[in-house]
Known about the structure:
Elements: H1 5-23, H2 26-36, H3 43-55, H4 62-75, H5 80-95, H6 100-123
Helix pairs in contact: 1-2, 1-3, 2-5, 3-4, 4-6
Amino acid sequence: MGIDRSAYLTVALAIVSAAGLWFGLWPLAALALAFLVGGRREPITLAADTIVFAGLAGYADPLWVALLVIASLAAREHDPRAILILFFASIAATFVYVDWTILTGLLAIIETVRAAFVSRNLLRGQSPRTV
Length: 131
């Protein structure tokens, strides 16, 4: 099981996006997030999501970031909605103030509920989505 070139690109975009979110370079973060929105459902995309969410710790409360990362990993699926929300928030932060702690908290709650539904389906014996 190797890592192909698209996986390296996904991780590189996640690192650029996380650095943009950490240091407040909102246009750079938005540009990198634009390419991460439609990621494929593979383990490297889940790792890229984790890297992006860790980049939020620069402006958001680390407790909410930790909950978001744990819930994202517990779901074991890439969630393009969370990346899309961060994409639009990065664009908005270029022009207006965005409270990243509230946004991260809401994303963490959404991901936690989503992880609960995914784990419930796994306990029932249904396979996770593989689209």
